[in-house]
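Subject: Sanity check before I submit

Could someone independently write out the structure tokens for this chain? I want to compare against mine line by line before I put it in a report. The sequence has 102 residues.
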Amino acid sequence: MVSDFMNIKLNSRYSVTADRYNWILLESIAGMTKEGKPKSTIKKHYYPRLEWCLNRAIETDAKHAMSLVEIKQTLEAGRAYTKAFEKELGIVKKDFLITKGE
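---
Independent answer below. Compare away.
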């Protein structure tokens, strides 16, 4: 079982955690207060599958790319951290389902 306290940073914008039922993508959004001071907000996105959670982070980052080269780099980085994440947790993909490896 995944710990409620797990928090794995993907990049400067996203990290992933989990609760008993969901994978949670934490999105850090930088902004400014009315007084002009910097502030940061954490937005939570809930997913039943790790793959969907990671795809959201990858695809959102790709949308902010300024060129095809940046899109390619974003997708390659996304694939790399997806593989590393799955390896770290011992997760194996089987027929579109993600299960804990034995």
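---
OP: Matches mine. For the report I'm noting this point. The chain has two helices and six strands.
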